[in-house]
Every structure is written in C-alpha cells, then in structure tokens.
Design goal:
Layout lengths: L4 H8 L3 E8 L7 H14 L4 E5 L7 H5 L9 E2 L3 E2 L2 E2 L2 E4 L2 H4 L8 H14 L5 E7 L6 H9 L3 E8 L2 H16 L3 E10 L5 H8 L4 E6 L4 H4 L3 H5 L2 H15 L1
Parallel strand pairs: 1-7, 1-8, 2-6, 2-7, 8-9, 9-10
Antiparallel strand pairs: 3-4, 5-6
Helix pairs in contact: 1-5, 2-11, 5-6
Bound molecules: adenosine-5'-triphosphate and magnesium ion.
Length: 245
C-alpha cells in the first residue's frame, strides 16, 4: 500500500528554494558544526533558513545553536511548526526525545524520517540545511528518495582514511545521480594538498579548507562567539564563493 505521507512530503518541501544536505560518510569531521554555522550565517544575512537535524540517534546541532528542548518546543498547527532559533526554523528529534538516546534500527529510521518530513511545516524558505549522521546507509538512500532536489555538501577531514570513506560516498552519490556541490576539507592542520588533489582527480569540486581552530570549542554554545571565530570566517568565505555559482 502506498504510504499517504509520501504525497504530503512533496507538498511540505515545495516552497523551499534550495536544500543543502551536509554529509560525509565519516564521523567527527565537523558536519554538524559546519551545518549550524552555515545556517546562522545565512540567517544573519536575511535569508529564510531552516535546519533539520537528521542525526536521530545522536543529534548535536542544538548544542551549536544553544537550544534547550526544555525552553523551546515546536507548535502543533495542522502539522508541526518548527520553532525559530536565532532566525532559523529548527527541527530536531531532541524536541521529542530530550536527552534520551534513540536506538533506532533500519525500518524505524526510515519511518522517523518519513514522519518528520510529513509533519514539519517549513513554509517558505530560501535554504534548508540538513545535518546528516555519519555513515553511508539507509538514511542516505532515503534522503535521496525524499529530497529530490537536494544538493550534497560533502565534508572531509585531512585524514587519508577519512577521505577513503568520502570517496565511496562521492562515487555512490554520483552513481545515483545526486547533485554534488563539492567537498570541504575541515580541521586542517598543515598545508598538504592531498585532499584537494584527490577531489579534483575524482572530477568533483574542491570548495576550500577550514583550519583547526583552537578557539572553536570554547565558542560552542554561544552563537555570538561562534560567529566571531576564525572557523566561522573560513566557513563564510567558502559559502559566499559557493553561492556565487
Ligand atoms: N575546524 C575545526 N577546528 C576545531 N575544532 C573543530 C573544527 N571542526 C570541528 N571541530 C570539532 O570537532 C568535533 C566534531 O564536530 P562535529 O560534531 O560537527 O562533527 P560531525 O561530523 O557532525 O560528527 P558526527 O559524525 O559524530 O555527527 C566538535 O567538537 C567540533 O567542535
Ligand atoms: Mg554530527
């Protein structure tokens, strides 16, 4: 039987200009902090921005944004209206699970995604940023299925081992006909050109590098501090370059 939520999803996403899915395959490379920072920068520039945290088992964007589920909750009105945080329409399972772990498997993850996409009323947005969990699995395939117009922004660290996972992801996405914006190298410590060369050799766009910022950790939780870091400056310049194209 056809799931009635499928037709609702298309409708729910129909007023979103651009969907950017931030992904890596690899864990701990900065997906969530980069996604949150991009959302904040765009919102500050006056764009209508949404952020959807799809890391169902261990969401973290709320930490970067300083959101507490005890203080802010979505409103129910013919669906769920995401609360606005620092000018961003924000949706995460933390609103429903709090700090509890959500040990979801296969089918349940697909179902949670369907549910969240079917109920969330984003309204009109210039950008929807989607933070992905690590790994190349069912969720990635589901995202490709439901976000038909998604642009994939790929994050890697400088690690050769991390990049091997990213390479697999890039080849998979390309094989499935996904729109790949390019690759950002994060947590860079030296001036190696390895990642840049590998990305170019694959025929994908190398979008730029973000260096290790020793002041980043301390800035997390305060949006004002976060936006003043060198990290945010580097995100900003990559983002403006990216939006020109
Ligand atoms: N350029 C950077 N400089 C310093 N610290 C960084 C940088 N980028 C990310 N970090 C730190 O690395 C840690 C992991 O970042 P983050 O949680 O965003 O990664 P992730 O890819 O989303 O991880 P996961 O795969 O677990 O979801 C965080 O503590 C973050 O503050
Ligand atoms: Mg993350």
């Amino acid at each position: 039987m056809l799931d009635p939520r499928l037709s609702i999803i298309e409708d729910r996403l129909s007023n979103i200009e651009r969907i950017i899915v931030v992904s890596s395959g690899k864990g701990g490379v900065g997906k969530s902090i980069i996604t949150s920072t991009i959302a904040l920068i765009l919102a500050r520039e006056g764009f209508k921005v949404g952020l959807l945290d799809l890391d169902f088992t261990s969401p973290t964007t709320h930490i970067a944004l300083g959101v507490s589920a005890e203080k802010i909750q979505p409103i129910e009105d013919r669906g769920i209206v995401p609360p606005e945080v620092h000018g961003i329409k924000y949706m995460s399972l933390i609103f429903y699970l709090g700090d509890k772990a959500a040990p979801l498997r296969g089918n349940e993850i697909s179902n949670a995604l369907l549910e969240v996409l079917a109920i969330t009323r984003w309204g009109k947005l210039d950008f929807l940023l989607v933070d992905m969990p690590p790994g190349i699995g069912d969720l990635m395939l589901d995202v490709l299925k439901y976000f038909k117009r998604a642009n994939f922004l790929i994050i890697t660290s400088s690690s050769k081992m991390a990049f091997e996972t990213v390479r697999k992801l890039l080849l998979l996405l390309r094989g499935l006909g996904a729109e790949i914006m390019g690759v950002i190298e994060n947590i860079k410590l030296d001036d190696s050109t390895y990642i840049r060369r590998e990305v170019n050799a694959l025929g994908e766009k190398f979008l730029g590098e973000i260096h290790f910022d020793e002041n980043l950790e301390e800035a997390i939780g305060s949006v004002e501090k976060l936006l003043k870091t060198k990290f945010a400056d580097e995100v900003r310049s990559i983002l403006w370059e990216l939006l020109k194209t």
